[in-house]
Amino acid sequence: MAKDILTTAEAAKILGVSVRTAQLLIEGGSIPSWKTPGGHRRVYRRDVLGLIAGSGEPPMLASARVILIARQERMADYKAALAKVDFCVVESYSDIYTALLAIGTRLPAAVVIEAETSDASRLAMLESLRADPSLGSTEILVVGRSAATRRSGGGGPDSRMTVFVDELPALPAAIETVFKAAVGHPFPFETPPSFPFPDNEGQRLLALERSGLVDTPPEDSFDRLTWLAARSLDAPVALLTMLTPTRQWFKSRHGLDMIDTPRGWAFCNYTILQKGIMVAENLATDLRFAENPAVKGELGFRFYAGCPVSDPDGFTLGSLCVIDTRPRALDETQKQILANLAALASDEIKLRATDRQLRWAIERGNSKPGAAAASPLPGTKRVVEHQ
Question: 231 FRET partner, CA 20 to 30 A, in 89, 150, 158, 238?
Answer without folding.
Answer: 89
